Amino acid sequence: MKIDINSDMGEGFGVYQLCDDAALMEVVSSANIACGFHAGDPAIMTRMVRLAHAHGVGIGAHPGFPDRQGFGRKELPYCPEEICQQVIYQIGALRAIAQAEGARVAHVSFHAAMGTMINRDDALAAQVMRAIAHIDPTLIIFSQPDTLIERAAAAAGLPTLTLFLADRAYDANGRLVPRGVPGAVITGEQAVRARVRQFLHQGTVTTLEGERLPIRARSILIHSDTPGSVELARQVRSEINANGDSIAPAAEVLAQ
User: Fold this and answer.
1) Which CDD domains does the entry link to (predicted)?
2) Strand partners, 62
3) What is the dihedral sign for C-alpha 79, 137, 217, 98?
4) What are phi and psi for residue 34, nearest 5 degrees?
5) In this structure, which of 70, 92, 146, 177 has its CB flanked by the most CB atoms within 10 Å?
6) 230 phi and psi, to 5 degrees?
7) Which domain holds residue 11?
8) pLDDT of 153-186, one tens digit each?
9) pTM for the full model?
10) Using an 8 Å Cβ cutoff, are 222 and 231 in contact?
């Protein structure tokens, strides 16, 4: 079976860099590239596109709110039309850079607070997905399974790929545990490897409460701002290979 490994990348600004994007690009199969609002700038975006293109990594837009200080994690009071405009603007910027480099944008993965707001409002989710479908109906929407984003994307005729987060804890309802809660971010090698093995073998994750929860996903997300993210991605890739599965970009996973 083909499994995608995706990561949020290019989340620096100017001379500031969040992680070793070049090293991470050698491990992942899909890159969610910050588009200049919560992080990123034209130079960083171009560098990420070039790296992804050179390594055969799928290129994705990672739109977020214009909130550098809060890293896009603060919910901001934008109306639905403004959020749609921001999504379209960011996808368009990355598509232009990719086209100039002889590459193409294949997917969209929403960042932090923007994704949270879209995912809890049926009307907003539908409006955003219709806007994306007008841009390119082949864009793959990354989402967690059984969410408003997944359903709205499908209703708009957009392909979807659902995610498992190897470095974040889940609660009994299948939601991510807030980052401020102890144990919400998982960094230990053995814990990460065990979670990936459980996901691959059983299709489940053990929640923070100790319950086993089914997870329907074909892509594993690594947050680049998690401490040791490059090594974390290598551990995930190692477990996938050990299980006899192969790593492939989102488009290839869906084509299987």
Assistant:
1) LamB_YcsF_like (cd10787)
2) 34
3) negative
4) -60, 140
5) 177
6) -65, -50
7) 2-255
8) 999 999 999 999 998 999 998 999 988 899 999 8
9) 0.96
10) no
